[in-house]
Specification:
alpha+beta, Thiol Ester Dehydrase, Chain A, Alpha-Beta Plaits, six-stranded mixed beta sheet, disordered N terminus, DUF2066 domain-containing protein, signal, DUF2066
Length: about 350
């Protein structure tokens, strides 16, 4: 009965507009249940959807090996329905279909960060909740030698239809009027530095994924490409990805790429050493807006437990920062938030804005 009340109440609570990089929102959960009457079918479907959303969230925030032997192991997910209801902050129901005995819909589910953290900590499962910087995706279709980026592109449609904006590694799909495209498919695959740099500036990103895919005679999709990253000084670094084949089609290939990126980010960011370290840093900035961005990056970093302002001037500030985990983890997380933590021979540890 407690779950029934929670489900009915939550169905009336709208899901607040979440930030694009908020990993505590799970979207597009499909629900489908049949029962003796409409109310029972809806209640069963809501229960089904909330369980599925909770499982997807926990899989997103944690590594599979850390869940082994716990009730949160994916193959035998057994979190109490009442606990799941307490974790949820709101629901949005879409595409409802109902009859006298069946209920179908899609759910978008928001979760309370603190409630989720409390559950994971109770089971001793380390997790990461700080997202990486957004990656701009350029999905290039190889159609028998014709390279297509902006139109008539099923590979692009797979990225449009999948909801990656709440991933730990959020993905942004480049958009443009095909008649005024900021970059061509051939320029992207040839790693045209000027065109890619201009595109990165336009979208406010430092990382671009150029992903080339083609349909094979076996119906499998073969995909591979490049990961391009721009440093603070504007230099471009390139890494390769794939190629590999996916027998589930375009959607499976897109899902695999994102999940692989998430897994790498979790392995880099999960904190296993909970001991806190204190350090003094000098924050350098060129104006009030840049200072606010750097202050926000420090304050919102998941590894930072406290960031105290000690002194402030027109172009710099002194702060005392307490953080968990290893120093290289802190450096990586701040870099994802647009702040470089570097050791200076005269000033000690310095925080600077990146591109």
């Amino acid at each position: 009965m407690r779950f029934l009340l929670a489900a009915l109440c939550l169905s009336l609570v709208p899901l607040a507009a979440a930030q694009a990089d908020d990993p505590y929102t799970v979207t597009g959960v499909e629900i489908d249940a049949t029962a003796d009457n409409a109310l029972q079918a809806q209640t069963a479907a809501m229960q089904q959807g909330q369980r599925a959303a909770a499982r997807r969230l926990i899989e997103r925030l944690t590594l599979a090996e850390d869940r082994v032997g716990t009730p949160l192991e994916s193959a035998a997910f057994a979190l109490d329905d009442a606990i799941i209801a307490e974790m949820i902050s709101g629901l949005q129901i879409r595409d409802e279909q109902r009859s006298g005995t069946r209920y179908l819909a899609k759910l978008d589910v928001g979760f309370h960060r603190r409630s989720v953290a409390r559950v994971l900590e109770n089971y001793g499962i380390p997790f990461v909740d700080s997202p990486a910087r957004a990656t701009l995706v350029l999905p290039v279709l190889d159609a028998g030698g014709d390279l297509v980026l902006w139109r008539d592109n099923p590979w692009r449609e797979a990225w449009q239809s999948r909801r990656f904006r709440h991933a730990l590694t959020p993905m942004t799909l480049a958009t443009a009027d095909p008649e005024m495209a900021p970059i061509t498919a051939r320029q992207a695959l040839q790693l045209d530095e000027a065109a890619l740099s201009a595109l990165a500036m336009q979208y406010g990103v430092t990382r671009i994924a150029i992903l080339r895919a083609a349909q094979q005679p076996s119906e499998a999709v073969r995909a591979g490409g490049y990961m391009v990253e721009f440093a603070q000084d504007g230099t471009m670094a390139v890494d390769t990805w794939g190629p590999m084949s996916f027998y589930g089609g375009w959607a499976e290939a897109a899902d695999f790429f994102v999940i692989e990126r998430e897994d790498a980010w979790k392995r880099q960011g999960i904190v296993r050493d909970m001991e806190e370290t204190e350090m003094r840093v000098t924050v350098l900035y060129s104006g009030i807006d840049e200072w606010r961005r750097l202050q926000t990056a420090l304050a919102r970093a998941s590894l930072v437990r406290n960031a105290q302002l000690d002194a402030l001037s027109r172009d710099g500030a002194r702060m005392t920062v307490q953080y968990r985990g290893a120093l290289d983890q802190l450096v990586s997380e701040l870099a994802e938030r647009g702040a470089a933590l570097e050791e200076h021979p005269e000033l000690g540890w310095v925080v600077l804005a990146t591109r």
